[in-house]
Amino acid sequence: MKIFSSLVKIPGIMGKCGGLEVFMGFASAKMLRSVSFADVLNEETGHGYQRPPNREHSLDFKRYILNPQSSTIPLTFNLRNEFKHNWQIRKGKNGRAVLCIEINSKCLAQVDCQHRLAELHDVDVPLAFMSFIGLDLRTEMAQFVIINSKAKGLSSSLTDYHESNLLLD
Fold first, then answer.
1. Cα distance from N-terminal residue to C-terminal residue, the chain
2. Which of 1, 95, 135, 163 has the fewest Cβ atoms nearer than 10 Å?
């Protein structure tokens, strides 16, 4: 078992999501942001695959999540294999596990949460999250595309309609 000098320890559970093993847990937004990164596309080098975070979208989410009656779907990450020296999952009984991450390391790739996390560097609100474990970059990108490809086509008129009904309530 690897020994780390200083750790962030996140209790959670191991399970399957479809055919892939995942870790699920809860942690503060501030802590999750500190140990994760968005793999933003650099058009010059061709590295990365995501759009840069949209600051206005992120600030809107920050205002929303600070409301005591708010919630969100779980954030989605991938524990990158190339950073395996900075993370470890300690498995217990009955699916219980602890995700151990070396402090000051960024080993969780933000598969679906970059806009929600981008402005939460100072927010202690607890958030649910799921992390794939060691997906290669191509498979991680495929998960990103599956999660996000249909969302881009969502008509704003539909969300405007729902928003106006929510405001009436």
1. 54
2. 1
